[in-house]
Amino acid sequence: MRQFKLEVAALLAAWASAAACLDVPQSSQGTCPNNVNAKQLGNKLSNTAEIYFPGSAGFAAAIARWSALDPPVASIVVVPGTENDVVETVKFANQKCLPFLATNGAHGSITTLGKMTHGVEIYLTQLDCVEIASNGQTAKIGGGILAKNLTDVLWAQGKQAVTGTCECVGYLGPGLGGGHGWLQGHYGLVSDQYVSMNVVLADGTLTTIDENSDLWWAMRGAGHNFGIVTSVTSKIYDLVPNYAIETLIFSGDNVEAVYEIANDNWLTNGTMPVDLNNWSYWYFDPTSDPDKPVIAFYIIQEGVNIVDPVYTEPFYNIGPISSQAQSGTYLDLAAWTGISLADPPCQKTGEANPRFPIYLKSYNATAQRQVYDIFSSLVTNSSGPFGSALFMFEGYSQQGVKAFPDNATAFAYRSDNLLVAPLLTYKLDGPELDAYVAQVGNQIRQILYEGSGDSSLHAYVNYAYGDETPLVWYGSEEWRQDRLQTLKKKYDPNARFSYYAPVA
Ligand SMILES: Cc1cc2nc3c(=O)[nH]c(=O)nc-3n(C[C@H](O)[C@H](O)[C@H](O)COP(=O)(O)OP(=O)(O)OC[C@H]3O[C@@H](n4cnc5c(N)ncnc54)[C@H](O)[C@@H]3O)c2cc1C
Fold first, then answer.
1. Considering 123, 158, 182, which residue would you say is the last residue of a domain?
2. Largest CA distance in the chain
Protein backbone atom coordinates (compact mmCIF):
# COMPACT_ATOMS: atom_id res chain seq x y z
CA MET A 1 0.00 0.00 0.00
CA ARG A 2 2.82 2.39 0.96
CA GLN A 3 4.61 1.70 -2.29
CA PHE A 4 1.36 2.41 -4.12
CA LYS A 5 0.90 5.76 -2.38
CA LEU A 6 4.48 6.74 -3.16
CA GLU A 7 3.93 5.98 -6.78
CA VAL A 8 0.83 8.16 -6.85
CA ALA A 9 2.74 10.95 -5.14
CA ALA A 10 5.47 10.65 -7.74
CA LEU A 11 2.89 10.86 -10.47
CA LEU A 12 1.32 13.96 -9.00
CA ALA A 13 4.74 15.54 -8.91
CA ALA A 14 5.24 14.54 -12.50
CA TRP A 15 2.19 16.52 -13.52
CA ALA A 16 3.97 19.69 -12.58
CA SER A 17 6.60 19.07 -15.21
CA ALA A 18 6.43 19.11 -18.95
CA ALA A 19 6.74 15.35 -18.80
CA ALA A 20 3.06 15.25 -17.91
CA CYS A 21 2.40 16.02 -21.57
CA LEU A 22 1.91 12.65 -23.16
CA ASP A 23 2.81 12.13 -26.76
CA VAL A 24 -0.31 10.19 -27.61
CA PRO A 25 -1.21 9.28 -31.20
CA GLN A 26 -4.32 11.16 -32.26
CA SER A 27 -7.20 9.47 -34.01
CA SER A 28 -7.96 12.57 -36.07
CA GLN A 29 -6.44 15.99 -36.67
CA GLY A 30 -8.21 19.36 -36.89
CA THR A 31 -9.31 20.49 -33.45
CA CYS A 32 -7.37 17.74 -31.67
CA PRO A 33 -4.29 18.87 -29.69
CA ASN A 34 -0.87 17.45 -30.54
CA ASN A 35 -0.19 16.25 -27.06
CA VAL A 36 -2.19 15.56 -23.94
CA ASN A 37 -1.47 17.31 -20.66
CA ALA A 38 -2.57 14.86 -18.00
CA LYS A 39 -2.30 17.60 -15.37
CA GLN A 40 -5.37 19.24 -16.90
CA LEU A 41 -7.28 16.06 -16.21
CA GLY A 42 -5.73 15.56 -12.76
CA ASN A 43 -6.97 19.00 -11.73
CA LYS A 44 -10.55 17.96 -12.44
CA LEU A 45 -10.47 14.65 -10.58
CA SER A 46 -11.20 13.93 -6.93
CA ASN A 47 -8.31 13.46 -4.54
CA THR A 48 -8.92 9.72 -4.47
CA ALA A 49 -8.44 9.34 -8.22
CA GLU A 50 -5.18 8.00 -9.62
CA ILE A 51 -3.44 8.36 -12.96
CA TYR A 52 -0.81 5.92 -14.14
CA PHE A 53 1.68 6.29 -16.96
CA PRO A 54 3.50 3.59 -18.92
CA GLY A 55 6.58 2.36 -17.09
CA SER A 56 5.00 2.46 -13.64
CA ALA A 57 4.03 -0.60 -11.61
CA GLY A 58 0.49 0.72 -11.25
CA PHE A 59 0.15 1.02 -15.02
CA ALA A 60 1.49 -2.51 -15.57
CA ALA A 61 -0.92 -3.96 -13.00
CA ALA A 62 -3.90 -2.08 -14.42
CA ILE A 63 -3.38 -3.16 -18.02
CA ALA A 64 -2.67 -6.85 -17.23
CA ARG A 65 -5.36 -9.02 -18.82
CA TRP A 66 -6.57 -12.60 -18.66
CA SER A 67 -6.11 -13.12 -22.40
CA ALA A 68 -3.10 -11.81 -24.31
CA LEU A 69 -4.76 -12.23 -27.71
CA ASP A 70 -5.54 -8.84 -29.29
CA PRO A 71 -5.69 -6.88 -26.03
CA PRO A 72 -6.67 -3.21 -25.96
CA VAL A 73 -3.70 -0.83 -25.73
CA ALA A 74 -3.80 2.08 -23.28
CA SER A 75 -1.54 5.13 -23.26
CA ILE A 76 -2.63 6.21 -19.81
CA VAL A 77 -4.70 4.66 -17.02
CA VAL A 78 -7.16 6.64 -14.91
CA VAL A 79 -8.51 5.05 -11.74
CA PRO A 80 -11.61 7.08 -10.84
CA GLY A 81 -12.34 7.59 -7.16
CA THR A 82 -15.88 8.86 -7.73
CA GLU A 83 -18.63 8.65 -10.32
CA ASN A 84 -17.83 12.22 -11.32
CA ASP A 85 -14.22 11.23 -12.04
CA VAL A 86 -15.59 8.97 -14.78
CA VAL A 87 -17.56 11.92 -16.15
CA GLU A 88 -14.47 14.15 -16.21
CA THR A 89 -12.30 11.45 -17.76
CA VAL A 90 -14.75 10.76 -20.58
CA LYS A 91 -15.13 14.50 -21.26
CA PHE A 92 -11.34 14.91 -21.25
CA ALA A 93 -10.86 11.99 -23.64
CA ASN A 94 -13.50 13.42 -25.96
CA GLN A 95 -11.88 16.87 -25.94
CA LYS A 96 -8.50 15.33 -26.75
CA CYS A 97 -9.90 12.93 -29.37
CA LEU A 98 -8.65 9.98 -27.35
CA PRO A 99 -10.31 6.58 -27.40
CA PHE A 100 -11.34 5.29 -23.96
CA LEU A 101 -12.33 1.96 -22.46
CA ALA A 102 -13.70 1.01 -19.06
CA THR A 103 -12.06 -2.00 -17.44
CA ASN A 104 -12.63 -3.94 -14.26
CA GLY A 105 -11.89 -7.67 -13.94
CA ALA A 106 -9.91 -7.63 -17.23
CA HIS A 107 -11.45 -10.98 -18.23
CA GLY A 108 -12.99 -9.61 -21.42
CA SER A 109 -11.21 -11.51 -24.18
CA ILE A 110 -13.05 -10.71 -27.38
CA THR A 111 -10.55 -9.84 -30.11
CA THR A 112 -12.46 -6.69 -31.09
CA LEU A 113 -10.83 -5.12 -28.01
CA GLY A 114 -7.57 -5.11 -29.96
CA LYS A 115 -8.97 -2.33 -32.18
CA MET A 116 -8.15 0.07 -29.33
CA THR A 117 -4.53 0.90 -30.17
CA HIS A 118 -4.10 3.85 -27.78
CA GLY A 119 -6.10 6.00 -25.41
CA VAL A 120 -7.41 6.10 -21.88
CA GLU A 121 -8.15 3.01 -19.82
CA ILE A 122 -10.70 3.86 -17.14
CA TYR A 123 -10.01 1.25 -14.47
CA LEU A 124 -13.11 1.16 -12.27
CA THR A 125 -11.70 -0.82 -9.35
CA GLN A 126 -12.25 1.91 -6.75
CA LEU A 127 -15.99 2.10 -7.50
CA ASP A 128 -16.72 -0.96 -5.38
CA CYS A 129 -19.45 0.15 -2.95
CA VAL A 130 -22.20 -2.18 -1.76
CA GLU A 131 -25.08 -0.48 0.06
CA ILE A 132 -27.98 -2.69 1.06
CA ALA A 133 -31.35 -0.89 1.10
CA SER A 134 -33.14 -0.75 4.45
CA ASN A 135 -35.84 -3.16 3.18
CA GLY A 136 -33.10 -5.73 2.40
CA GLN A 137 -34.46 -6.28 -1.11
CA THR A 138 -32.01 -4.32 -3.23
CA ALA A 139 -28.43 -3.12 -3.07
CA LYS A 140 -26.59 -0.28 -4.77
CA ILE A 141 -23.45 -1.85 -6.22
CA GLY A 142 -20.41 -0.05 -7.62
CA GLY A 143 -19.53 -0.51 -11.28
CA GLY A 144 -16.00 -1.64 -10.42
CA ILE A 145 -16.72 -4.48 -8.01
CA LEU A 146 -15.62 -8.07 -8.66
CA ALA A 147 -18.06 -10.97 -8.24
CA LYS A 148 -16.26 -12.39 -5.20
CA ASN A 149 -16.15 -9.08 -3.35
CA LEU A 150 -19.85 -8.52 -3.89
CA THR A 151 -20.72 -12.06 -2.82
CA ASP A 152 -18.63 -11.77 0.35
CA VAL A 153 -20.11 -8.44 1.41
CA LEU A 154 -23.67 -9.65 0.87
CA TRP A 155 -22.92 -13.00 2.53
CA ALA A 156 -21.91 -11.24 5.71
CA GLN A 157 -25.39 -9.69 5.77
CA GLY A 158 -27.21 -12.98 5.05
CA LYS A 159 -27.87 -11.96 1.44
CA GLN A 160 -26.86 -12.97 -2.06
CA ALA A 161 -27.18 -11.65 -5.60
CA VAL A 162 -27.08 -13.27 -9.01
CA THR A 163 -23.46 -12.82 -10.12
CA GLY A 164 -21.17 -14.57 -12.56
CA THR A 165 -19.63 -17.73 -11.15
CA CYS A 166 -15.91 -16.93 -11.39
CA GLU A 167 -14.56 -15.05 -8.39
CA CYS A 168 -12.14 -12.72 -10.19
CA VAL A 169 -14.47 -11.62 -12.98
CA GLY A 170 -16.19 -8.23 -12.77
CA TYR A 171 -19.85 -8.05 -11.70
CA LEU A 172 -20.92 -5.58 -14.39
CA GLY A 173 -18.94 -7.06 -17.32
CA PRO A 174 -21.04 -10.24 -17.32
CA GLY A 175 -24.27 -8.39 -16.51
CA LEU A 176 -24.02 -5.98 -19.41
CA GLY A 177 -24.00 -8.97 -21.77
CA GLY A 178 -26.78 -10.81 -19.88
CA GLY A 179 -24.83 -12.59 -17.14
CA HIS A 180 -25.01 -16.27 -16.22
CA GLY A 181 -24.68 -17.49 -12.64
CA TRP A 182 -25.58 -20.27 -10.23
CA LEU A 183 -28.76 -18.54 -9.07
CA GLN A 184 -30.24 -17.83 -12.51
CA GLY A 185 -32.65 -20.79 -12.26
CA HIS A 186 -34.44 -18.98 -9.46
CA TYR A 187 -34.17 -15.35 -10.43
CA GLY A 188 -32.99 -14.93 -14.04
CA LEU A 189 -29.81 -13.52 -15.49
CA VAL A 190 -27.52 -11.10 -13.63
CA SER A 191 -29.03 -8.19 -15.60
CA ASP A 192 -32.59 -9.36 -15.00
CA GLN A 193 -32.04 -8.26 -11.40
CA TYR A 194 -31.23 -4.64 -12.21
CA VAL A 195 -33.66 -2.00 -10.99
CA SER A 196 -31.79 1.14 -12.06
CA MET A 197 -28.28 2.20 -12.97
CA ASN A 198 -26.07 5.26 -13.08
CA VAL A 199 -24.41 5.48 -16.47
CA VAL A 200 -21.86 7.83 -17.98
CA LEU A 201 -22.87 8.21 -21.62
CA ALA A 202 -20.57 8.76 -24.59
CA ASP A 203 -20.66 12.55 -24.25
CA GLY A 204 -19.73 12.39 -20.56
CA THR A 205 -23.24 12.92 -19.19
CA LEU A 206 -23.99 11.04 -15.96
CA THR A 207 -27.58 9.84 -15.97
CA THR A 208 -29.74 7.47 -13.94
CA ILE A 209 -31.82 5.10 -16.01
CA ASP A 210 -34.49 2.52 -15.20
CA GLU A 211 -37.35 0.78 -16.95
CA ASN A 212 -38.68 4.15 -18.10
CA SER A 213 -35.67 4.78 -20.34
CA ASP A 214 -35.45 3.44 -23.91
CA LEU A 215 -31.82 2.60 -23.13
CA TRP A 216 -32.82 0.21 -20.34
CA TRP A 217 -33.57 -2.65 -22.76
CA ALA A 218 -30.15 -2.36 -24.44
CA MET A 219 -28.09 -2.07 -21.26
CA ARG A 220 -29.13 -5.60 -20.32
CA GLY A 221 -27.48 -7.64 -23.08
CA ALA A 222 -25.65 -5.11 -25.24
CA GLY A 223 -24.68 -2.69 -22.49
CA HIS A 224 -20.96 -2.50 -23.27
CA ASN A 225 -21.96 -0.48 -26.33
CA PHE A 226 -23.72 2.34 -24.57
CA GLY A 227 -22.02 3.66 -21.47
CA ILE A 228 -19.92 3.20 -18.38
CA VAL A 229 -22.01 1.99 -15.45
CA THR A 230 -20.73 3.66 -12.31
CA SER A 231 -23.28 1.92 -10.08
CA VAL A 232 -26.31 -0.30 -10.38
CA THR A 233 -29.19 -1.04 -8.05
CA SER A 234 -29.94 -4.75 -8.14
CA LYS A 235 -32.40 -7.06 -6.45
CA ILE A 236 -30.82 -9.23 -3.74
CA TYR A 237 -32.13 -12.29 -1.93
CA ASP A 238 -31.89 -14.26 1.29
CA LEU A 239 -29.13 -16.86 1.36
CA VAL A 240 -29.56 -20.46 0.32
CA PRO A 241 -27.57 -22.02 3.17
CA ASN A 242 -26.00 -25.20 1.86
CA TYR A 243 -24.85 -26.86 -1.33
CA ALA A 244 -23.53 -30.27 -2.38
CA ILE A 245 -21.58 -31.35 -5.43
CA GLU A 246 -20.72 -34.66 -6.98
CA THR A 247 -17.74 -34.66 -9.35
CA LEU A 248 -17.50 -37.65 -11.64
CA ILE A 249 -14.44 -38.17 -13.85
CA PHE A 250 -15.14 -40.17 -17.00
CA SER A 251 -12.96 -41.47 -19.78
CA GLY A 252 -13.49 -39.77 -23.14
CA ASP A 253 -14.75 -43.18 -24.33
CA ASN A 254 -17.99 -42.32 -22.51
CA VAL A 255 -18.80 -39.10 -24.36
CA GLU A 256 -21.95 -40.42 -26.00
CA ALA A 257 -23.25 -42.17 -22.87
CA VAL A 258 -22.69 -39.18 -20.57
CA TYR A 259 -24.36 -36.59 -22.78
CA GLU A 260 -27.22 -38.85 -23.87
CA ILE A 261 -28.16 -39.29 -20.21
CA ALA A 262 -27.83 -35.55 -19.58
CA ASN A 263 -30.22 -35.03 -22.50
CA ASP A 264 -32.67 -37.64 -21.31
CA ASN A 265 -32.74 -36.39 -17.75
CA TRP A 266 -32.61 -32.64 -18.13
CA LEU A 267 -32.83 -31.37 -21.70
CA THR A 268 -34.87 -33.35 -24.21
CA ASN A 269 -37.25 -35.28 -21.94
CA GLY A 270 -37.28 -32.91 -19.00
CA THR A 271 -35.87 -29.66 -17.65
CA MET A 272 -33.01 -29.04 -15.31
CA PRO A 273 -34.60 -28.87 -11.83
CA VAL A 274 -34.40 -25.37 -10.38
CA ASP A 275 -32.15 -26.52 -7.53
CA LEU A 276 -29.64 -28.20 -9.86
CA ASN A 277 -26.76 -27.05 -12.06
CA ASN A 278 -24.69 -29.35 -14.26
CA TRP A 279 -21.36 -28.34 -15.74
CA SER A 280 -18.71 -30.43 -17.38
CA TYR A 281 -15.18 -29.82 -18.59
CA TRP A 282 -12.91 -31.76 -20.89
CA TYR A 283 -9.19 -31.39 -20.14
CA PHE A 284 -6.00 -33.39 -20.05
CA ASP A 285 -5.46 -35.02 -16.65
CA PRO A 286 -2.78 -37.73 -16.90
CA THR A 287 -3.48 -39.00 -13.40
CA SER A 288 -6.93 -40.11 -14.59
CA ASP A 289 -6.13 -40.92 -18.22
CA PRO A 290 -2.57 -40.71 -19.60
CA ASP A 291 -3.69 -40.75 -23.24
CA LYS A 292 -6.60 -38.42 -23.79
CA PRO A 293 -8.74 -35.70 -22.17
CA VAL A 294 -11.16 -36.71 -19.45
CA ILE A 295 -14.73 -35.58 -18.85
CA ALA A 296 -15.12 -33.92 -15.45
CA PHE A 297 -18.86 -33.94 -14.79
CA TYR A 298 -20.24 -31.75 -11.99
CA ILE A 299 -23.74 -32.17 -10.54
CA ILE A 300 -24.44 -29.37 -8.06
CA GLN A 301 -27.53 -29.25 -5.87
CA GLU A 302 -28.59 -26.52 -3.49
CA GLY A 303 -30.19 -26.93 -0.07
CA VAL A 304 -28.77 -30.42 0.56
CA ASN A 305 -25.64 -32.01 2.02
CA ILE A 306 -25.51 -34.79 -0.53
CA VAL A 307 -26.72 -34.66 -4.12
CA ASP A 308 -29.92 -36.66 -4.52
CA PRO A 309 -28.96 -40.10 -5.97
CA VAL A 310 -31.87 -39.75 -8.38
CA TYR A 311 -29.67 -37.26 -10.22
CA THR A 312 -26.34 -39.03 -9.89
CA GLU A 313 -27.17 -42.72 -10.18
CA PRO A 314 -27.66 -42.85 -13.97
CA PHE A 315 -24.16 -41.39 -14.36
CA TYR A 316 -22.58 -43.73 -11.80
CA ASN A 317 -24.06 -46.58 -13.82
CA ILE A 318 -21.84 -45.58 -16.77
CA GLY A 319 -18.78 -46.30 -14.63
CA PRO A 320 -16.72 -43.18 -13.88
CA ILE A 321 -12.92 -43.43 -13.40
CA SER A 322 -13.36 -41.69 -10.05
CA SER A 323 -15.87 -39.65 -8.11
CA GLN A 324 -15.94 -37.20 -5.25
CA ALA A 325 -18.81 -35.90 -3.13
CA GLN A 326 -18.45 -32.61 -1.24
CA SER A 327 -20.75 -30.39 0.74
CA GLY A 328 -20.48 -26.80 1.90
CA THR A 329 -21.98 -23.43 1.06
CA TYR A 330 -22.50 -21.15 -1.92
CA LEU A 331 -19.02 -19.76 -1.21
CA ASP A 332 -17.47 -23.14 -2.05
CA LEU A 333 -18.94 -23.42 -5.53
CA ALA A 334 -16.13 -21.55 -7.29
CA ALA A 335 -13.36 -23.69 -5.77
CA TRP A 336 -15.28 -26.91 -6.46
CA THR A 337 -15.51 -25.99 -10.14
CA GLY A 338 -11.98 -24.57 -10.50
CA ILE A 339 -12.80 -20.87 -10.82
CA SER A 340 -11.85 -19.46 -7.42
CA LEU A 341 -9.24 -16.73 -6.93
CA ALA A 342 -6.58 -19.42 -6.48
CA ASP A 343 -7.41 -21.31 -9.69
CA PRO A 344 -5.84 -20.94 -13.15
CA PRO A 345 -8.69 -18.88 -14.69
CA CYS A 346 -7.92 -16.14 -12.16
CA GLN A 347 -4.21 -15.92 -13.07
CA LYS A 348 -2.93 -13.53 -15.72
CA THR A 349 -0.24 -15.73 -17.27
CA GLY A 350 0.32 -13.88 -20.54
CA GLU A 351 -1.26 -16.67 -22.57
CA ALA A 352 -3.91 -16.29 -25.25
CA ASN A 353 -7.33 -17.46 -24.10
CA PRO A 354 -9.75 -17.55 -27.04
CA ARG A 355 -13.12 -19.26 -26.75
CA PHE A 356 -15.53 -20.20 -29.54
CA PRO A 357 -18.92 -20.21 -27.81
CA ILE A 358 -22.23 -21.57 -28.95
CA TYR A 359 -25.59 -21.83 -27.18
CA LEU A 360 -27.42 -25.14 -27.57
CA LYS A 361 -30.80 -26.49 -26.54
CA SER A 362 -29.50 -30.02 -25.96
CA TYR A 363 -26.48 -32.21 -26.68
CA ASN A 364 -26.08 -34.01 -29.99
CA ALA A 365 -24.12 -37.14 -29.05
CA THR A 366 -22.71 -37.56 -32.56
CA ALA A 367 -21.46 -33.98 -32.64
CA GLN A 368 -20.09 -34.35 -29.12
CA ARG A 369 -18.03 -37.33 -30.28
CA GLN A 370 -16.75 -35.47 -33.35
CA VAL A 371 -15.62 -32.44 -31.39
CA TYR A 372 -14.18 -34.60 -28.63
CA ASP A 373 -11.99 -36.33 -31.21
CA ILE A 374 -10.74 -33.00 -32.60
CA PHE A 375 -10.16 -31.62 -29.10
CA SER A 376 -8.38 -34.82 -28.10
CA SER A 377 -6.04 -34.60 -31.10
CA LEU A 378 -5.07 -31.06 -29.98
CA VAL A 379 -4.76 -31.78 -26.27
CA THR A 380 -2.42 -34.73 -26.43
CA ASN A 381 -0.40 -34.01 -23.28
CA SER A 382 -0.07 -31.34 -20.66
CA SER A 383 3.24 -30.00 -22.04
CA GLY A 384 1.99 -29.67 -25.64
CA PRO A 385 0.94 -26.31 -27.14
CA PHE A 386 -2.69 -26.80 -26.06
CA GLY A 387 -1.99 -28.71 -22.85
CA SER A 388 -4.02 -26.24 -20.75
CA ALA A 389 -6.99 -26.11 -23.10
CA LEU A 390 -10.42 -26.73 -21.64
CA PHE A 391 -13.76 -27.53 -23.24
CA MET A 392 -16.63 -26.09 -21.18
CA PHE A 393 -20.26 -27.24 -21.05
CA GLU A 394 -22.37 -25.08 -18.77
CA GLY A 395 -25.86 -26.39 -18.04
CA TYR A 396 -27.55 -24.00 -15.63
CA SER A 397 -31.11 -24.30 -14.47
CA GLN A 398 -33.16 -21.97 -16.63
CA GLN A 399 -36.55 -21.34 -15.06
CA GLY A 400 -35.71 -17.81 -13.92
CA VAL A 401 -34.25 -16.90 -17.31
CA LYS A 402 -37.22 -18.25 -19.26
CA ALA A 403 -39.67 -16.51 -16.92
CA PHE A 404 -38.83 -13.27 -18.76
CA PRO A 405 -40.25 -12.83 -22.28
CA ASP A 406 -37.76 -13.29 -25.13
CA ASN A 407 -37.94 -9.61 -26.02
CA ALA A 408 -37.55 -8.34 -22.43
CA THR A 409 -33.91 -7.31 -22.88
CA ALA A 410 -31.16 -7.20 -25.51
CA PHE A 411 -30.02 -10.66 -24.35
CA ALA A 412 -31.35 -12.79 -27.22
CA TYR A 413 -30.94 -16.39 -26.18
CA ARG A 414 -33.36 -17.22 -23.36
CA SER A 415 -34.69 -20.23 -25.22
CA ASP A 416 -31.30 -21.99 -25.19
CA ASN A 417 -30.22 -24.29 -22.37
CA LEU A 418 -26.48 -24.87 -22.65
CA LEU A 419 -23.50 -22.55 -22.93
CA VAL A 420 -20.72 -24.49 -24.64
CA ALA A 421 -17.23 -23.32 -25.57
CA PRO A 422 -13.80 -24.71 -26.28
CA LEU A 423 -11.19 -22.54 -24.54
CA LEU A 424 -8.03 -23.04 -26.60
CA THR A 425 -5.38 -21.62 -24.26
CA TYR A 426 -1.96 -21.25 -25.95
CA LYS A 427 1.27 -19.26 -25.85
CA LEU A 428 1.37 -16.57 -28.52
CA ASP A 429 3.76 -17.46 -31.32
CA GLY A 430 2.85 -15.31 -34.30
CA PRO A 431 -0.04 -14.89 -36.73
CA GLU A 432 0.21 -18.37 -38.21
CA LEU A 433 -0.59 -20.02 -34.86
CA ASP A 434 -3.35 -17.46 -34.19
CA ALA A 435 -4.90 -18.28 -37.56
CA TYR A 436 -4.66 -22.02 -36.89
CA VAL A 437 -6.39 -21.66 -33.52
CA ALA A 438 -9.14 -19.53 -35.07
CA GLN A 439 -9.63 -22.13 -37.79
CA VAL A 440 -9.84 -25.11 -35.44
CA GLY A 441 -11.98 -23.27 -32.89
CA ASN A 442 -14.45 -22.29 -35.58
CA GLN A 443 -14.37 -25.82 -37.01
CA ILE A 444 -15.37 -27.22 -33.61
CA ARG A 445 -18.13 -24.64 -33.27
CA GLN A 446 -19.41 -25.32 -36.79
CA ILE A 447 -19.79 -29.03 -36.01
CA LEU A 448 -21.80 -28.23 -32.89
CA TYR A 449 -23.89 -25.73 -34.84
CA GLU A 450 -24.66 -28.21 -37.61
CA GLY A 451 -25.63 -30.75 -34.98
CA SER A 452 -27.89 -28.27 -33.17
CA GLY A 453 -30.67 -28.00 -35.73
CA ASP A 454 -30.70 -24.23 -35.22
CA SER A 455 -31.01 -21.98 -38.26
CA SER A 456 -28.66 -19.29 -36.94
CA LEU A 457 -25.56 -19.37 -34.77
CA HIS A 458 -26.15 -18.21 -31.18
CA ALA A 459 -23.04 -17.10 -29.26
CA TYR A 460 -22.75 -15.57 -25.78
CA VAL A 461 -21.27 -12.12 -26.38
CA ASN A 462 -19.21 -12.37 -23.19
CA TYR A 463 -17.44 -15.54 -24.37
CA ALA A 464 -17.20 -14.53 -28.02
CA TYR A 465 -14.00 -14.98 -29.99
CA GLY A 466 -14.46 -11.79 -31.99
CA ASP A 467 -14.96 -12.92 -35.59
CA GLU A 468 -18.70 -13.40 -35.13
CA THR A 469 -21.17 -10.76 -36.34
CA PRO A 470 -23.57 -8.61 -34.30
CA LEU A 471 -26.36 -10.95 -35.46
CA VAL A 472 -24.60 -13.82 -33.69
CA TRP A 473 -23.97 -11.83 -30.48
CA TYR A 474 -27.28 -10.00 -30.25
CA GLY A 475 -29.76 -12.17 -32.17
CA SER A 476 -30.54 -12.34 -35.86
CA GLU A 477 -34.10 -10.98 -35.63
CA GLU A 478 -34.37 -7.80 -37.66
CA TRP A 479 -36.21 -5.96 -34.89
CA ARG A 480 -33.33 -6.59 -32.45
CA GLN A 481 -30.71 -5.27 -34.82
CA ASP A 482 -32.86 -2.25 -35.78
CA ARG A 483 -33.52 -1.42 -32.15
CA LEU A 484 -29.81 -1.58 -31.28
CA GLN A 485 -28.85 0.54 -34.31
CA THR A 486 -31.44 3.19 -33.46
CA LEU A 487 -30.25 3.39 -29.86
CA LYS A 488 -26.61 3.47 -30.93
CA LYS A 489 -27.27 6.43 -33.22
CA LYS A 490 -29.10 8.23 -30.43
CA TYR A 491 -26.74 7.55 -27.50
CA ASP A 492 -23.35 6.95 -29.11
CA PRO A 493 -23.41 8.53 -32.57
CA ASN A 494 -19.61 8.74 -32.73
CA ALA A 495 -19.14 5.08 -31.75
CA ARG A 496 -17.04 5.83 -28.66
CA PHE A 497 -18.11 2.51 -27.08
CA SER A 498 -17.10 0.27 -29.93
CA TYR A 499 -14.30 -1.97 -28.76
CA TYR A 500 -16.31 -4.73 -27.08
CA ALA A 501 -18.54 -6.60 -29.51
CA PRO A 502 -19.72 -3.45 -31.30
CA VAL A 503 -23.35 -3.48 -32.42
CA ALA A 504 -22.23 -1.79 -35.64
C1 LIG B 1 -12.63 -17.37 -16.18
C2 LIG B 1 -13.88 -16.71 -16.65
C3 LIG B 1 -15.08 -16.96 -16.03
C4 LIG B 1 -16.25 -16.36 -16.47
N5 LIG B 1 -17.43 -16.64 -15.84
C6 LIG B 1 -18.56 -16.07 -16.27
C7 LIG B 1 -19.80 -16.35 -15.64
O8 LIG B 1 -19.89 -17.12 -14.69
N9 LIG B 1 -20.92 -15.74 -16.11
C10 LIG B 1 -20.88 -14.90 -17.17
O11 LIG B 1 -21.92 -14.40 -17.55
N12 LIG B 1 -19.71 -14.60 -17.78
C13 LIG B 1 -18.57 -15.16 -17.36
N14 LIG B 1 -17.39 -14.88 -17.99
C15 LIG B 1 -17.37 -13.95 -19.12
C16 LIG B 1 -17.43 -12.52 -18.63
O17 LIG B 1 -18.78 -12.13 -18.61
C18 LIG B 1 -16.66 -11.58 -19.56
O19 LIG B 1 -15.35 -12.03 -19.69
C20 LIG B 1 -16.68 -10.15 -19.05
O21 LIG B 1 -16.36 -9.31 -20.11
C22 LIG B 1 -15.67 -9.93 -17.95
O23 LIG B 1 -15.83 -8.69 -17.32
P24 LIG B 1 -14.58 -8.07 -16.54
O25 LIG B 1 -15.00 -6.85 -15.85
O26 LIG B 1 -13.92 -9.14 -15.77
O27 LIG B 1 -13.60 -7.75 -17.76
P28 LIG B 1 -13.12 -6.38 -18.43
O29 LIG B 1 -12.26 -6.84 -19.54
O30 LIG B 1 -12.55 -5.46 -17.45
O31 LIG B 1 -14.44 -5.79 -19.01
C32 LIG B 1 -15.11 -6.44 -20.07
C33 LIG B 1 -15.94 -5.44 -20.84
O34 LIG B 1 -16.93 -4.93 -19.99
C35 LIG B 1 -16.87 -3.52 -19.95
N36 LIG B 1 -17.17 -3.12 -18.58
C37 LIG B 1 -16.73 -3.67 -17.42
N38 LIG B 1 -17.27 -3.02 -16.38
C39 LIG B 1 -18.05 -2.05 -16.90
C40 LIG B 1 -18.88 -1.05 -16.34
N41 LIG B 1 -19.01 -0.88 -15.02
N42 LIG B 1 -19.55 -0.22 -17.19
C43 LIG B 1 -19.45 -0.37 -18.53
N44 LIG B 1 -18.67 -1.29 -19.12
C45 LIG B 1 -17.99 -2.11 -18.31
C46 LIG B 1 -15.47 -3.15 -20.36
O47 LIG B 1 -15.43 -1.90 -20.98
C48 LIG B 1 -15.12 -4.25 -21.35
O49 LIG B 1 -15.54 -3.87 -22.59
C50 LIG B 1 -16.21 -15.46 -17.55
C51 LIG B 1 -14.99 -15.20 -18.17
C52 LIG B 1 -13.85 -15.80 -17.74
C53 LIG B 1 -12.56 -15.50 -18.43
1. 123
2. 73
Q: Give the other-Cβ count within 10 Å of 456's Cβ.
A: 11
Instruction: Give residue 100 CA to ligand 1 midpoint distance, Å.
Output: 17
C-alpha 176 – ligand 1 centre gap (Å):
8
Containing domain of residue 275, as a range?
243-473
157 with 43, same domain: the answer is: no
Q: Same domain, yes or no, for 298 and 386? A: yes
Same domain, 112 and 158: no
Cα 31 from Cα 10, distance rounded (Å) = 31
- Distance between Cα 177 and ligand 1 center (Å): 8
Q: Is residue 488 part of a domain?
A: no
User: For residue 4, is pLDDT > 70?
Assistant: no
User: How far is Cα 124 from Cα 104, in angstroms, rounded to an integer?
Assistant: 5
Amino acid at 38: A
Give me the CATH number covering residue 82. Answer: 3.30.465.10
The predicted-structure confidence for 328-370, as pLDDT tens digits, reads as follows: 999 999 999 999 999 999 999 999 999 999 999 999 999 999 9
Residues 146 and 289 in one domain: no
Query: Is position 480 within any domain?
Result: no
Q: Residue 112 domain-assigned?
A: yes
| Residue bearing the CA closest to ligand 1, atom 28 | 106
Q: Write down which residue in 123, 155, 183 finishes a domain.
A: 123
List ligand 1's pocket residues with C-beta within 6 A.
66, 101-108, 124, 143, 164-166, 169-170, 172-174, 176-177, 179-181, 224, 228-229, 339, 345, 462-463, 500
- Per the domain annotation, does 481 fall within a domain? no
pLDDT band at 21 (very low <50, low <70, confident <90, very high): low
Nearest ligand 1 atom, CA 177: 17
- Residue 22, pLDDT score: 59
Same domain (yes/no): 431, 292:
yes
Three-state SS across 72-87?
CCCCEEEECCCHHHHH
Read off the pLDDT of residues 364-402 as tens digits, 9 standing for 90 and up: 999 999 999 999 999 987 677 999 999 999 999 999 999
**Closest residue to atom 4 of ligand 1, CA basis:** 166
pLDDT level of residue 3 (50, 70, 90 thresholds): very low
Residue 301 phi/psi, 5° resolution? -125, 140
pLDDT in tens, 270-309: 899 999 999 999 999 999 999 999 999 999 999 999 999 9
Q: Report how many domains make up the chain.
A: 3
Give the ligand 1 atom nearest the CA of 174. Answer: 17
Question: Is 269 found in the same domain as 209?
Answer: no
Cα 138 to Cα 159: distance, rounded to the nearest angstrom: 10
* Among 305, 185, 162, 150, residue whose Cα is nearest residue 235: 162
